[in-house]
Amino acid sequence: MKSPRRTTLCFMIIVIYSSQATLNLNLESIVHPSILRGHEPAGEEPPRHKRAVASSSPAVDEHTVDIEISFENASFLEPIKAHLNSLSFPIQVNSTDQVINILSIEVTTVCRPAGNEIWCSCETGYRWPQESCLPHLTCQDHGGSPAGNHCSCLKGLPPKGPFCQLRGDVTLRMSVRLNVGFQEDLRNSSSALYRSYKTDLEMAFWKGYRILPGFKMVTVTGFRPGSVVVTYEVTTTTSSPELMRKANEQVLQNLNQTYKMDYNSFQAVTSNETKFSVIPEIIFEGDTVSLVCENEVPSSNVSWYHVERRSDVQNSSRFWIYTSVLNNMTSLSRFTIYNITQGDAGEYICKLTLDIFEYEARKKINVTPIRISANEEMQVMCNSPVSLNCCSDIHVNWSKIEWKQEGKISIPGNSETDTDPRCSKYTLHANEVQCLSGSAGTPVVYTCEFTSAHGARGSKNIQVTFTSVANLIITPDPISVSEGQSLSIKCTSDVNSYDEVYWNTSAGIKIHKRFYTTRRCPNGTESVLTVKTATREWNGTYYCIFRYKNSYRVATKDVTVHPLPLESNIMVDPLEAVVPLRGSRHLKCCIEDDEDYKVTFQMDSWFFPAAKEVNGKQVCYKYDFTANSVFQCPKHVDVFCHFTNAVNNSVRSTSMKLNLVPEMTIMCQDPVIGVGEPGRVIQKLCQFSDIPSSPGGPAGGIITYECVGSQWKVKRNNCISAPINSLLQLAKALIKSPTQDKKLATYLKDLSISTGKVENEVSSFPGSLGAIINILDLLSTVPTQVNSEMMTHVLSTVNVILDKPILSTWKVLQQQQTNQSSQLLDSVERFSRALQSEDGTSLCISQTNVQMKGMVIRSGHPKSYKQSFVFADSDLWGNVAIDNFQLENLQTDSSIVTVAFPTLKTIIAQEVQGENFTNSLVMTTTVTHNITMPFSISMTFKNNNPLGGLPQCVFWNFNLANHTGGWDNSGCYVKEVNEDSVSCSCDHLTSFSILMSPDSPDPGSLLKILLDIISYIGLCFSILSLAACLVVEAVVWKSVTKNRTSYMRHTCIVNIAASLLVADIWFIVAAAIDDHHYILNETACVATTFFIHFFYLSVFFWMLTLGLMLFYRLVFILHDTSRSTQKAIAFSLGYGCPLVISVITVGATQPQEVYTRKNACWLNWEDTKALLAFIIPALIIVVVNVTITVVVITKILRPSIGDKPSKQEKSSLFQISKSIGVLTPLLGLTWGFGLATVFPGSNAVFHIVFTLLNAFQGLFILLFGCLWDQKVQEALLNKFSLSRWSSQLSKSTSLGSSTPVFSMSSPISRRFNNLFGKTAAPKGPPGNDGNLVSGGTSTV
Fold it and tell me: Can you say how many angstroms the Cα of residue 173 is from the centroid of all Cα atoms in its chain?
């Protein structure tokens, strides 16, 4: 190769030709002489390489020749390129031996001056070989590459070796469209059509693309619809767009025209020409990431696409794309993502478009969140060094790791390097100055922040709580009390940070929280142990314990409880006694305690010593009282006995009431009971009475005697058997015990066993039954969890006292004491709420007279709550259901428990008077945790229905009847009533049952069926009548509204009829909803209620408008207003007032969902008294209209000035009655009969009368408001051309002697004429106007 001598620019071209002979190239035949005039080739190299191409034609040789051309004027380069691009290939060159075809000519290398150097750069698709790209030979800032890599620019031509060479092979994925119809055989690669297309197209492609440098092969890969789209692949080196266009033209020329190839549809995609790099390689969330696309194609048309988001990337606050072309040779596109997130991860496509070429590169990036592990909370004792550690999950060299702190106190530390590059250590040491006792427990947040080299930040907070050693101070004074007194121990700490504060006994048993309170103070913490009634169990040492993590601070206090009987444990005899004057009586006080007490008897201000007597476990102190002459008769004396212990604390017993009477009045005498006069009633402890004693201790309770004649008779026996009394005393002691929750399980077991053994005694002694109820009530207040075994013992006890043989005992007990059944129900509910299952999710306990079923809510529990209860002996059953949606709102591990009682309803019926009971279950459902939102529950009861009436769903409200309890239906309604069952729904939990209401007829009764028939038939007549009324008014409107009064009257009638018609239609809709016993659609029911309320009110207010119009026309005769003013007032009153009332009613009640009734689409009464919004306006309007009616009648009866009296006025009373009969339906008095039906217990007659009048009110309006009007009758007759009838009617009206009251001469008639706008005048002479009347009368 020769170098040009005075070269300003040189370029090399490559010539590809095919021949079977030696090259003999005439360059002048290729390059136009005018272009190269004055310039010669600097040199010519032999062929640098050759290639052989196989084809269906005879074998030929292909050769590639490099030609170097030098210029002094650089402006010649572009014209030469343009000329070469305009050539059509192949070009045949004449030769004596063979035909030579020049396939292509391309510029490969261009050398330009650059300052003092010559830069030789490669054209598109070419590059310098690796051995020429030495670092000191490559151009600066362009194509620089390390040694051993390809480059695109060198400083001068290499001294040896080839020029720029073709790049490596690329596979072009190409497509072109054939404008022919697509056939399905083109989808089948084995079909003849497919093979024919493939062969023809590949031949044309081969002939066209063989001119491409480095061309190797072309293959058709398939066809797809869109006319016919041919997809094929071309394997070659990178080619310029100009050369590719020429090749495409050759393809078009070599293809049969029947294929109709579209030249403008060629597309090519290449994927191995673009360098795609991502910085950094490991991407953290928050990094600034650069995606760089480099392609040696000089085009800035680069787009970026995010595959996962299926959208092109556009510049924004976080995305920035910058594309440039370097030295008109290389495209460089940089896509920068600031503060990258997880959503930015995925595959990105960089696509460069140049002509038909698309250079595409893909790269998938993963965004890794910075995860830092550390202990989120730490507790640090002051004066103890501690190290905080943070470690990242990924091994990476972090740019920076910082520690920060935030808190009320400042305790800095030192950051230290860790042997593990992923970790950082921070050492703290808080001294007493930094960590004062007042600030102990204050948290300080330390944050370790990791920063990557590209800006990503990850942090972790560690909350460190510094604590100092608590100093405890406990009540310093020694604590010494006697039984029955209160005691208090205060324990204070100088720090207010703790995890737990609790108290222990000397035996290590934790005292229940109900006995102590703990609160934080500004300078520490205070815990106070308080015992209201100390017993001997409180004697011992108590430990106040503050626990903070694993650190414990303990303070102790000794408590001494001296023996002293409680007032309730001192049994006195007698409670009451009669002592005859100069007689005596033995007094005694007994206890179950043989301690050394000083006992005295007190009477007024005197004290007397007592004698001690021991009888087994019982110790009694006695005194003989003598009534001497000092006492006056009658006199009442209260005697007490005082017990004083060793520390001089004393307790006084209940009083023994002695009644001193003359001896002569004594009639009853008994050595045990004592003496008394007739009618005397005294009480005596059962253990000191004549009731036979039983083993196991003294009996309890009180027995009441009455002196009848000369014998003492038992008036009331409330005695408690000895075993039950013993359990009652233990229960009273247990609730005062510091370890009551630990003893409860054993006690419940003993109660169940003892109750089962003394069942016969329970049935004989109402007092024993009451004692068991009191025991259950006491034990249910112990604040502890109840397991299934404990609940089994509770229900076993309940099963005994609810047995059918004991029902008679319940009746006696309820005569003596009220509230016992409510107390029992409340106790069972408390036990149910405390129930917690140890294992499994189901709970089931079954007894004869009580059953319990339930379940525990587990995490992700899929089941709904459905329980069934069957009591075969009682022929009762019931079901409970709670849907899954309600259960999702409950806390995990909550227990839902339902307890069913078959006999409790009968017991309550004996206690609650005035209720109508049906024999049904009582089912109580509870949840262990409090429920903060409405809770819907559905229940089904067997309905034996012995009393008839409508069933009511009720619950037991413990707050009614002065907290003694009663049935309440708030929040409950009947869903469905069948022959043998009643379905209920309630929005809360407690004990439920059903009652029978006497206020409404039974659904299956004859009265209810009769009322339904009357209602539906009457409503049909009413709707038809109202429709007929509107039709009649429309027909006669012009004839009857010629004056203002008539116009306003008929306007009122039309609106009354229209309002009542719409109201009746909505009434039928409401009845259709109510008659189906499913849950009412709330929205439909609210809408129905609103419209019924509105339109019925409109009927009343239009009636009021009619009455006020009558009053106005009668009283204000000389005053006149326009028709438009009257209409505006009428419509405002008729529709405006009802709308305001209806909207206010629904707005005030519907947000609380108490607008409608639970079981009917009508205004609520039980919860909000919304029905008053209808009743009050209706009553007021009825009163006003009745008043107007009286005024109208009075005015009619009062003759005007100048009116001559007439004998016919004597019959006016009949006419007044007739007027009242007309006005009453129009003025709304029909609804007066309905008022009686609102009150409970109303007679069936009121229901029938109201139903008849209300249902046929439309017919009344048609008859009396429309058709009775004579002017309407005449208008109808004239409308239908019945002139003879009309004339006859007029004649009879004029001459008939039966209606003289309506003659024009009558004062009453004239008043009506003035009132209703009659304008007709007599046709006779003026002087005879009193004797003649017009035949055409006019009425309103």
Answer: 57
Peptide bond into 90 cis (omega under 30): yes
pLDDT digit string, tens, across residues 981-1023: 888 888 777 655 555 444 445 445 566 677 677 777 777 878 8
Distance between CA atoms of residues 330 and 352, nearest Å: 12
Interatomic CA distance for residues 1205 and 1207, integer angstroms: 7
Tell me how far apart the alpha carbons of residues 1336 and 1283 are, in angstroms, rounded to a whole number.
13
What is the pLDDT averaged over residues 1252-1261? 72
Measured distance CA(124)–CA(330) in Å, rounded:
9
- 224 CA to centre of own chain: 54
Angle at 630 between CA 625 and CA 635, to 5 degrees: 70
H or E, element range at 1312:
helix 1307-1316
pLDDT, tens digit, 9 for 90 and up, residues 235-281 = 887 777 788 888 898 899 899 888 999 988 898 887 666 788 999 98
The DSSP-derived string for 155-193 is ES--SSS-SSEE---EEEEEEEEE-S---GGGG-TTSHH
Helix 766-779 with 820-833: angle, nearest 10 deg: 30
Residues 182, 186, 188, 192: is their CA dihedral positive or negative?
positive
What the block records as the tokens of 292 is 């760089």
Q: State the pLDDT confidence band at 1325, using cuts at 50, 70 and 90.
A: very low
1232, burial (CB in 10 Å: exposed 0-12, middle 13-18, buried 19+): middle
Strand ranges, E, within 671-828:
674-676, 681-685, 702-708, 711-717
pLDDT digits (tens, 9 = 90+) for 146-194: 444 667 788 877 777 778 877 777 788 899 999 999 999 999 999 999 9
Q: Is the peptide bond before 951 cis (omega within 30 degrees of 0)?
A: no
The per-residue pLDDT for 1286 is 42
Q: Provide the 8-state DSSP code for 739.
A: T
In the structure encoding, which two tokens stand for residue 175, read together?
């497509």
Which residues, other chains included, contact 1033 with Cβ-Cβ below 8 Å and sequence gap of 6+? Answer: 1050, 1053, 1054, 1057, 1266
Q: Which amino acid, 750?
A: D
Separation CA 303–CA 835 (nearest Å): 68
Task: Judge contact between 270 and 353, C-beta under 8 A.
Answer: no
* Conformational region of residue 870, where left means phi above 0, alpha means psi within -120 to 50, and beta covers everything else: beta
Phi, psi of 565 (to 5 degrees): -65, 145
The secondary structure of 542-596, three-state, reads EEEEEEECCEEEEEEEEEEEECCCCHHHCEEECCEEEEECCCEEEEEEEECCCCC
For residue 120, the number of C-alpha atoms closer than 13 Å in the C-beta half-sphere is 26
Amino acid at 1332: L
| Ordered alpha helix ranges (H), 1004-1081 | 1006-1040, 1044-1075
How many other C-beta atoms are found inside a 10 Å radius of the C-beta of residue 135?
A: 10
DSSP H/E element including 941: strand 937-942
Burial class for 547, CB neighbours closer than 10 Å (0-12, 13-18, 19+): middle
Distance, CA of 838 to CA of 860 (rounded, Å): 18
Q: Return the pLDDT at 1246.
A: 64
Lowest average pLDDT, out of 45-54, 232-241, 641-650, goes to: 45-54
The C-alpha atoms of residue 762 and residue 809 are separated, in whole angstroms, by 8
Q: Which 3 state secondary structure label does DSSP give 323? A: strand
pLDDT for the residue numbered 951:
77
Rounded distance between C-alpha atoms, residue 62 and residue 18, angstroms = 4
Q: What is the DSSP string of 1105-1126?
A: HHHHHHHHHHH-SS----HHHH
Pairing of strands 656-661, 576-580: parallel
